[in-house]
Amino acid sequence: MPEVQGPPQPSSPGVPGRLSSAGSCFWVAVLDGNVVGIVAARAHEEDNTLELLRMSVDSRFRGKGIAKALGRKVLEFAVVHNYSAVVLGTTAVKVAAHKLYESLGFRHMGASDHYVLPGMTLSLAERLFFQVRYHRYRLQLREE
Ligand SMILES: CC(C)(COP(=O)(O)OP(=O)(O)OC[C@H]1O[C@@H](n2cnc3c(N)ncnc32)[C@H](O)[C@@H]1OP(=O)(O)O)[C@@H](O)C(=O)NCCC(=O)NCCS
């Protein structure tokens, strides 16, 4: 089983880009010195939730519990930092992502067919032939 690693001080700034605010974090799963999986978390201070994002496991290492270990790390981080819930959105078509989040305890909160991916123009052709379903999940940790 790989080791899940985060930065030395998980709640401090230091991860570049959109995840550099306090309360956000990024973890990698490392096996034999190689990164085989990633996950990130971003804080939403306005409703005290933590968003799980960028979950991905190297296709050669799937089905071994790596995503579950990464997901648990995010949940652990949320509990330690007193977030009220962990939320996520996904456009994943394959069943694996949905099963993963359900197995971690997330509840499916609904789906929307009107999601616009970055770069989409919403032309007639796109609206007719390219619909993306966006699913929202939530794991409530405590009542606010
Ligand atoms: C989704 C993904 C992260 C799962 O990674 P993984 O390391 O293979 O998942 P795990 O081995 O930890 O499995 C965790 C749970 O997911 C489910 N699962 C994983 N692969 C599955 C598959 N092929 N079919 C059905 N369920 C699957 C199982 O419920 C499993 O729990 P269980 O072992 O208790 O039954 C991986 O397939 C992936 O990177 N996919 C492409 C990127 C992606 O879709 N990311 C999610 C975007 S929101």
From TrEMBL:
<dbReference type="InterPro" id="IPR050769">
    <property type="entry name" value="NAT_camello-type"/>
</dbReference>
<keyword id="KW-0492">Microsome</keyword>
<feature type="domain" description="N-acetyltransferase">
    <location>
        <begin position="1"/>
        <end position="125"/>
    </location>
</feature>
<comment type="similarity">
    <text>Belongs to the NAT8 family.</text>
</comment>
<keyword id="KW-0256">Endoplasmic reticulum</keyword>
<dbReference type="InterPro" id="IPR000182">
    <property type="entry name" value="GNAT_dom"/>
</dbReference>
<protein>
    <recommendedName>
        <fullName>N-acetylaspartate synthetase</fullName>
        <ecNumber>2.3.1.17</ecNumber>
    </recommendedName>
</protein>
<dbReference type="Pfam" id="PF00583">
    <property type="entry name" value="Acetyltransf_1"/>
</dbReference>
<keyword id="KW-1133">Transmembrane helix</keyword>
<keyword id="KW-0472">Membrane</keyword>
<dbReference type="InterPro" id="IPR016181">
    <property type="entry name" value="Acyl_CoA_acyltransferase"/>
</dbReference>
<keyword id="KW-0808">Transferase</keyword>
<keyword id="KW-0812">Transmembrane</keyword>
<keyword id="KW-0012">Acyltransferase</keyword>
<keyword id="KW-0496">Mitochondrion</keyword>
<keyword id="KW-0963">Cytoplasm</keyword>
